[in-house]
Design a protein that fits this description.
Length: 1469
């Protein structure tokens, strides 16, 4: 089956995956870090969910309480499938009061039965526990029956969806709504199910999910035939370039599979190239497929489906809203660090539109803020803190419409501020036309509402016309049916009359039926029934008339016998006909006639003969077959049709003949009347937020200018006053509060002509600055270095107000040279001993529950400038002038540069000449120079704060000669004993003139003297030279200089040393190549030098080592440069890989013949038989049930061995976790059970041999106590003690028993027997006259159980006892309620130190002691060490932290009372 690919969460760096045990059984904790930060903990459950078995249809829930720091996030999952979170199916909730996480099922269903997991996770770990939900199914289930029907529907529906042509394409037909909604659901996300169901009218959510699951399963099986993986399914997304895209990633099993695109079930042609002129195209990039729809229009809306080889893969519904831009976004020019605003107005409301910046979709974040007005017409985008990188094209996309504009960010051009971070600006570029936008938006809203009203009227009119047309069709069909029925009834009556006259009964089959009450009526009754029919016709609708007419006929049918009955029936029929005529559409005639005819067919008496053969000629059911039934119906219709009750009562005795057909009402029972709706609202009141002291206004629009309304506040009528104005302008009614106060908050209502609209005014008091002080605050403050600066600003607003001061975005606090004072309504910032680095943006930020406000100022601290910056740029250096310029200082100290001060020195002299201030321009032209002289300059910057340090330039020569740059180093082309050929490249810089030639010099190795090769007066014209003045066997190096019109350049770098000798022969093969050592990643080699054979093989100067993996044909060189050693270690090899190795000797003559090893080499250490390296290995382990069992064993082996674990000779189960690393193996049983007991064997095996080791792991628990203890005396002086076996005896073969005894003399318990493996023991030396009591304990490897005590045993003494009468004494009752003898004391502890608390309490019975911190129990908290010894209660906190601060309480309770003692712990930092 095909599954969507899920991207697994990558393990974070440093996650160790350490398993921990929880105090709560069944909870597994995984710790991600080896060491947790101080005060941080992994998640854990203090209450885990409990398994539940419940009847279907009931309310079910799981509850869990988790702890951890940081607070863990709780999620739920199920073993089979995913949890569908829906109010009708399942909900996840959290109760902050009780800290309970719940998973609720409002009406649990059988399909909810599963194993559920609860996860609690934070950044340091994760805890998980499982719980089972069992459902009891009872009785008949409508849901199951419905699912069966839906299952059949699914099959039929899928068959319809699969109707395709032989080539895999769909049939050419438009999809209906039912097909469309299921295809949308198949590709939709679960969070969209509810919206889709509401849109298409699906109310049975569970049924939909069941049906959808089956359809998905079937579709996944179909997709798996052509696709291996499918993921990243993106619905239609409209881009900013007037196109829309559909994206999906899929791996096709066959790259040649055909892909089809459909719109509403109709195939859409597309091209595979973007450049073609087709509207739809497909672009494939690797496994990603992107369908593009270009030149969007309204016609492009619809359901788009992607099929592969006739199988639907993905569907998405593309909706095109009717919206356009009334005002498009405009170009915005913003200064650096200023905010930019784009805004547009739509023609119809939209909750949100898409904003793009440089073709990237933008979202709400710190950089971009998206704002939508209350009427959803004005949309804004604010780009915060504009930087040059933010410039570009921004676009707004609404539906299929888009508009774009440029954002131009103007960079600061002041050279003094160049390179510095500009100050943050509080202005917004692009703002200022809010009133115009509001006016346009209001017009668009009115136009939109008008269009909606017109559409509603048209829809209503169309519906009425449709209903009238349907009523006319139904009336016509009914009239035709009734006319046909009347004709058949007439023909039937004629046939009856004819048969009655001739008396030929043989051809007619007659059946006698007993009719209750027959003959009780009379002709008058029939007439009365007819009268009821007539009245019904007169006052009711057509249906009523028809029923009344029929009733008349039925009344006649129940009349007396003989001719009178026939006449009455005829009269009834006539009356029915008359009633039919009285109906609105004449439909009563046929029914009445039919009733009359049947009434006339009565011969009298209590038997009625009916002609069964007369029905054979009829091919339709006869409506008026039963007079009684129709009479009854006429009676029921009497309330609507008039006085038709009588007719119905009189016709009760008639027989029901034929089949009743359901009547269809031809028209409405009551005619539609057009009622004036009166006044209604075009625009109601909207909730608003008002600020104290400012104005607030409520406005609504009604449909009539003459309408007069009343305003209410919190249910009480309000009138205009000095602080409140009520006005009316045409259709608009307004309520304006001039100056809002707290009392103005509340719910306001406007009522007019019975219609009303409500809104609420929420009064807020955010922080605000005094406007005059704010303007003064914004003015930049400029001071000198070392001085102080003071900022002070008043504010108002609801307390508490948080005041924060910032310098260049960093929050300030009162410390060092900064002092912040905040009093009622005023905050003051004092900054002392300021330095230039303290310059920047000063910001004050106020915040309360209603909002935040900021004010920004600029602080400039003046200081001396820094020196000018190099490098020096020489503009001109001729024989008469030196012109140069430099860069301004990096920091001018916040001041404007007044002058540059220059000094000049001629190179070779010790004096400096002051040139003088030259102005603020960073350039100088010195015309007082001598040709060929070199000059040096010192430059300083002068501002109002003083003079900077100097910048000294390099030497500048007047009339400088342009020498060429050095050529490249000479290269040896060839060398012989009497000649060395050299080549070189000309210099890149020729000095502005052509190169005339070169000078070449040589030097012997070991000498410091260079000698010129070419004669001094003969320069080398070419770029190469043959040096013949050499001595055979000597080693030389060479250098060259270039010459132009100005002279010779500097010499180049030296060439490599070269011997003056004939070329060498390549060396031979290396000798004795062998492997000296190897590991899994390295290989060590050694060899000997090749032989030196004159004129055939010369001496080797170096070696290259090459390796080749066995599966490759290319050799890889391990060392890029030749090595001179005859040993080498190859690194980076793959473990257990197979390699071929060879070594190549080399010298100046080239590389010799490679020498390979005879066999391939495996990357592995020398073979070692497996053996275990632990000094002591335990062979027996006891584990408590529920705890984890961990066994680690170390070993060594080469090559890497295969490690196998067995339990009792068979492989371990999946529950057991085996972790193997280099040289170690670990067995882990996360939550051990008794069934995990056994002998576990590890087998370590490689090609050399194998080694095994076994350990017995016994999983047990403290045994349950044995059953009742019985005593019996079989032999005098002995007692046989027998007991019922412990319940754990069958599960634990090592369980045994221990018996203890106490007598009335010694009063202490003594062990008399241990390690008893049966259930009986005989105690000896039982003395008469003493009272004995015995205890039996069950014991195993974990310890002993609670004892089971016997009854007291006494053998009376035979001789009479000596009795002594003791005076009566009162029993001493020592019982008392708890009381603290020594209470808790106050504690103050330094952070990180120990804290020890203790107290003393008495009480009998011994009280139960509970420690609490902030009313939370600490008895189960492992961070606190709590003890109670003989009434002395103590608690130790090892490392006190700030989290331990609070109130500590100790509570002592017993049956007689309760006592408390409390204290407080303060932690010093």
């Amino acid at each position: 089956m095909l599954k969507k690919t899920k991207v697994a969460d990558e393990t974070a760096t440093g996650q160790a995956g350490i398993k921990k045990k929880s105090k709560v059984p069944g909870v597994m904790i995984t710790q991600f870090m080896e060491e947790l930060p101080e005060g941080k903990t992994t998640p854990d459950f203090t209450r885990k969910p409990i398994a539940l078995t419940i009847q279907e249809g009931k309310f079910a829930y799981f509850k869990a309480i988790v702890v951890g720091d940081p607070t863990p996030t709780v999620t739920w999952s199920r073993a089979n499938g995913e949890i569908i979170f829906h109010p009708d199916v399942c909900q996840q909730k959290y109760d902050e009061a009780s800290n309970e996480h719940t998973l609720e099922f409002p009406k649990v269903a059988p399909e909810d039965a599963d194993t559920y997991k609860c996860y609690a996770a934070n950044e340091y770990g994760r805890a998980v526990c499982t719980v089972i939900l069992n459902i009891i199914e009872v009785g008949f289930s409508k849901t199951k029956e419905l699912q069966k029907i839906q299952g059949e529907d699914v099959t039929e529906f899928r068959k319809r969806l699969k109707t395709r042509n032989p080539d895999g394409t769909r049939e050419e037909k438009t999809m209906d709504a039912n097909e469309k909604v299921w295809e949308i659901l198949l590709s939709a996300e679960k969070k969209d199910y509810e919206q889709i169901c509401a849109e298409y009218g699906i109310t049975d959510f569970r049924g939909m999910l069941k049906k959808l699951t089956e359809m998905k399963k079937e579709r996944e099986e179909e997709i798996a035939q052509f696709i291996s993986h499918i993921r990243t399914l993106k619905p239609v997304e409209v881009k900013d370039d007037d196109c829309a895209t559909i994206e999906l990633d899929m791996d096709l099993l066959d790259s040649g599979s055909k892909i089809f695109l459909y719109k509403n079930g109709v195939m859409v042609p597309f091209s595979n190239e973007e450049g073609e002129g087709m509207k739809h195209n497909l672009k494939q990039v690797g496994k990603k497929y992107v369908f593009t729809i270009k030149n969007l229009s309204k016609d492009d809306a619809g359901l788009y489906s992607v099929d592969v080889e006739g199988v639907n893969v993905f569907s998405t519904d593309f909706k095109v809203p009717e919206v356009d831009f009334a005002v498009k976004i405009q170009e915005v020019k913003a200064e650096e660090r200023e905010d930019a605003l784009f805004q547009c107005v739509l023609t119809a409301p939209m909750n949100e539109i898409n904003w793009y910046g440089k073709s990237a979709l933008l979202t709400n974040n710190e950089k971009h803020e998206i704002i939508v007005s209350e009427d959803k017409l004005i949309h804004k985008l604010i780009v915060r803190d504009c930087l040059p990188l933010d410039g570009g094209i921004y676009a707004a996309v609404a539906g299929i419409k888009s508009c774009n504009a440029w954002l131009v960010v103007e960079v600061e051009k002041d050279p003094a501020k160049k390179g510095k971070k500009a100050a943050r600006k509080t202005t917004i570029a692009g703002a200022g036309n809010d009133e115009e936008l509001l006016r346009i938006a209001k017009e668009q809203q009115e136009r939109y509402q008008k269009e909606m009203e017109e559409k509603a009227q048209l829809a209503k009119k169309a519906q009425e016309e449709k209903e009238l047309a349907a009523a006319a069709v139904r009336a016509k069909q009914k009239a035709e049916a009734e006319a046909k029925a009347a004709a058949k009834a007439e023909a039937k009556a004629a046939a009856k009359a004819k048969r009655a006259a001739t008396g030929k009964d043989g051809a007619v089959r007659k059946t006698k039926k007993k009719v209750p009450g027959a003959g009780e009526g009379s002709a008058a009754d029939g007439v009365s029934g007819a009268t009821g029919g007539v009245v019904g016709v007169g006052e009711g609708s057509a249906a009523g008339g028809a029923a009344a007419g029929t009733t008349g006929g039925a009344a006649g049918a129940t009349g007396g016998g003989g001719a009178a009955g026939s006449l009455a029936g005829a009269a009834g029929g006539g009356a029915g006909g008359a009633g039919g005529v009285g109906g609105r559409d004449g439909s009563g005639a046929a029914a009445g006639g039919a009733g009359g005819n049947e009434g006339g067919d009565v011969e009298g008496g209590s038997e009625v003969e009916s002609d069964e053969d007369s029905f054979e000629d009829s091919d339709e059911d006869i409506e008026g077959g039963g007079g009684g039934a129709k009479g009854r119906e006429g009676g029921e219709k009497g309330d609507v049709g008039g006085e038709g009750e009588e007719g119905g009562e009189k016709g009760e005795g008639g027989e029901k003949g034929g089949e009743r057909r359901k009547r269809v009402r031809a028209g409405p029972l009551v005619p539609d009347e057009v009622i004036d709706p009166g006044v209604h609202f075009h625009a109601g009141l909207s909730d608003c937020k008002a600020i104290i002291g400012e104005a607030a206004e409520l406005e609504c629009k009604v449909s009539s200018e003459e309408c007069v309304g009343i305003w209410y506040k919190d249910g009480a009528e309000i009138q205009a006053s000095e602080s409140l104005t009520i006005s009316k302008e045409g259709y608009f009614h307004r309520l304006k509060i001039h100056k809002v106060t707290e009392e103005n908050a509340g719910k306001y209502k406007f009522e007019a002509d019975g219609r009303k609209t409500e809104a609420e005014i929420a009064v807020e008091d955010p922080p605000r600055f005094d406007k005059e002080e704010l303007e003064a605050f914004k003015a930049p403050v400029t001071i000198k270095k070392g001085h102080k600066a003071t900022y002070k600003l008043s504010y108002i607003g609801r307390e508490p107000i948080k005041v924060q001061w910032y310098l260049e975005g960093e929050e300030l606090s009162s410390e060092g040279n900064i002092n912040i004072e905040t009093s009622d309504g005023t905050s003051r910032l004092l900054m002392m001993k300021l330095q230039h680095k303290d310059s920047g943006e000063i910001k004050i930020k106020l915040k309360n529950v209603f909002g935040t406000i900021e004010a920004v100022s600029q602080l400039n601290v003046l200081d001396k400038p820094t020196p000018p910056m190099g490098p020096l740029e020489i503009v001109e250096a001729s024989s008469s002038v030196i012109d140069f310029k430099w860069r301004p200082p990096k920091d001018s100290g916040g001041c404007k540069i007044q002058n540059y001060i220059l000094e000049r020195q001629q190179v070779g002299r010790n004096t400096w000449k002051k040139v003088g201030p030259i102005g603020p321009v960073a350039k100088y032209r010195d015309s007082d120079v001598d040709h060929g002289r070199r000059y040096c300059y010192r430059i300083r910057v002068e501002t109002e704060m003083g003079t900077s340090e100097m910048m000294e330039t390099e030497d500048i020569q007047a009339g400088t000669k342009a020498y060429p740059a050095p050529p490249s180093a000479p290269k040896v082309a060839s060398a012989f004993k009497d000649c060395i050929n050299l080549t070189w490249s000309p210099p890149a810089d020729t000095g502005g003139t052509s190169i005339l030639g070169y000078n070449l010099e040589k030097r012997k190795k070991g000498s410091n003297l260079w000698g010129q090769v070419n004669p001094p007066n003969e320069i080398i014209r070419g770029k190469g030279f043959a040096v013949k003045d050499v001595v055979e066997g000597m080693e030389y190096e060479f250098r060259v200089s270039a010459i132009n019109d100005s002279g010779a350049s500097e010499f180049s770098t030296s060439s490599e040393f070269v011997f003056a000798r004939d070329p060498k022969k390549p060396p031979g093969k290396v000798l004795d190549l062998k492997v000296t050592d190897s590991t899994y990643t390295t290989l060590s080699l050694s060899w000997n030098k090749p032989k030196d054979i004159k004129k055939e093989e010369d001496e080797a100067k170096g070696y290259f080592v090459e390796i080749r993996p066995a599966e490759n044909t290319d050799w890889d060189r391990c060392n890029s440069n030749a090595i001179t050693m005859t040993t080498y270690t190859v690194k980076g090899m793959k473990s257990m890989a197979m390699y071929w190795v060879r070594v190549i000797a080399t010298n100046d003559g080239g590389e010799g013949v490679p020498q390979e090893l005879d066999n391939y080499i495996l990357a592995m250490p020398p073979p070692v038989r497996p053996r275990f390296t632990d000094a002591k290995i335990k062979s027996f382990m006891i584990v408590r049930a529920g705890n984890s069992a961990r066994f680690t064993i170390n070993f060594e082996a080469s090559p890497w061995p295969e490690v196998t674990w067995l339990k009792d000779g068979v492989p371990v189960s999946k529950k057991v976790t085996i972790s193997n690393a280099e040289g170690t193996s670990q067995l882990l049983i996360p939550s051990a059970e008794r069934s995990d007991t056994g002998i576990y064997t590890i087998i370590v095996k490689n090609i050399v041999g194998q080694e095994t080791f076994s350990i017995e792991i016994r999983v047990t628990d403290e045994p349950k106590p044995p059953g009742p203890v019985d005593l019996d005396e079989n032999v005098p002086g002995t007692v046989t003690i027998s007991w019922t076996a412990s319940p754990d005896e069958k599960r634990d073969d090592r369980l045994h028993y221990m018996v203890t005894k106490r007598d009335s003399v010694k009063r202490t318990w003594n062990t008399i027997a241990d390690r008893i493996f049966n259930n009986k023991f005989t105690a000896c030396n039982i003395m008469p006259g003493r009272e004995y009591q015995f205890r039996v304990y069950a014991k195993n490897d974990m310890g002993s159980s609670k004892p089971s005590e016997s009854a007291k045993w006494l053998i009376p003494a035979k001789k009479e006892k000596f009795t002594v009468k003791m005076p009566e004494s009162k029993a001493c009752d020592l019982q008392c309620p708890p009381k603290f003898l020594v209470p808790l004391k106050m504690h103050t502890a330094p952070q990180g130190y120990e804290c020890y608390m203790s107290c003393a309490v008495k009480g009998d019975p011994t009280p139960h002691v509970t420690w609490l911190r902030n009313n939370i129990s600490l008895n189960t908290n492992t961070n606190y060490f709590i003890s109670n010894t003989c009434g002395v209660c103590s608690m130790l906190i090892l490392r006190v932290g700030t989290k331990d601060t609070g109130e500590y309480k100790i509570v002592a309770e017993n049956a007689l009372g309760r006592a408390e003692s409390s204290t407080k712990l303060t932690v010093r930092e």
